[in-house]
Specification:
This protein has helices at 17-20, 61-70, 141-152, 214-228, and strands at residues 81-88, 91-101, 105-110, 113-116, 119-122, 129-134, 159-161, 175-180, 184-191, 199-206, 231-232. By secondary structure, the chain is α+β, with helices and mostly antiparallel strands.
């Protein structure tokens, strides 16, 4: 995936209203903020290749070093690093990603994230994560839809989104299911890069009842963009 592009990470207004207003005898619970509320915008002018870590870098230096080792055998068709300027939690900031190998695929992993055993997670809080599962070439989308609904049913009512209701950069997802309550937002996504094998992304995002979504506001844009960059090796 060429990450030098403009994009917004969006879902139309997300769900959860009826779930959260449950019992009249309880204090109302704040509605969780969806990834759409903290959309990131990549700035092409801020994107480009960077050579390794310098001794002056502070944020995520150790993680980048490990990921750079993993990226040595990654596709020569994509630059080893990308840097994007993104609007996260209301502020513009630059975020650097390293082309990293998983099990049968590669993707750009932002320095705030780490990939281990097919799980892409926040270094600052591993409870924010996305699991990546490669699919066989003959996967059945209807069967995956039923599987996803079954997996998410314990969280809340499952809703399906498509096209513009998902938003960039996952607009072209073959399947996007979501369920959430006052504590947790989960997505089950089937992603199939053109002409390549498909993948399941299982996203797990805790929600803060206080309404503070600082980590979630960072996790959403970064993990969406990283996942959209997945390609088979």
């Amino acid at each position: 995936m060429n990450m030098n592009h403009l994009y917004t990470i969006g879902l139309s207004t997300i769900l959860l209203g009826t779930v959260l207003t449950g019992c009249s005898n309880q204090e109302p619970v704040p509605t969780p903020v969806s990834p759409a509320a903290n959309s990131g915008t990549a700035n092409p002018a801020a994107s480009g290749e960077e050579a390794g870590n310098s001794s002056g870098e502070k944020s995520g230096e150790a993680g980048i070093a490990v990921q750079q080792d993993n990226s040595e055998a990654a596709s020569a068709d994509r630059p080893p690093t990308q840097t994007n300027e993104m609007l996260i939690n209301g502020e513009l900031s630059k975020h650097r990603a390293v082309l990293t190998e998983g099990e049968g695929y590669s993707l750009y992993v932002y320095e705030e994230l780490q990939l281990k055993n097919n799980r892409l997670f926040m270094k600052s809080n591993p409870e924010y994560y996305a699991e990546i599962e490669p699919l066989p070439a003959d996967f059945n989308l209807d069967e995956l839809r039923q599987q996803g609904k079954k997996e998410l049913a314990a969280t809340s009512e499952v809703k399906e989104y498509s096209g513009d209701t998902i938003g960039e950069p996952l607009t072209d997802a073959r399947l996007f299911l979501q369920a959430g309550n006052e504590k947790l937002l989960q997505n089950f996504v089937v992603w199939e890069p053109k002409g390549e094998q498909g993948f399941i992304f299982r996203m797990h995002q805790p929600l803060d009842p206080s309404g503070e979504q600082t980590i979630g506001g960072l996790f959403g844009p970064l993990v969406y963009d990283s996942l959209a960059s997945v390609h088979e090796k």
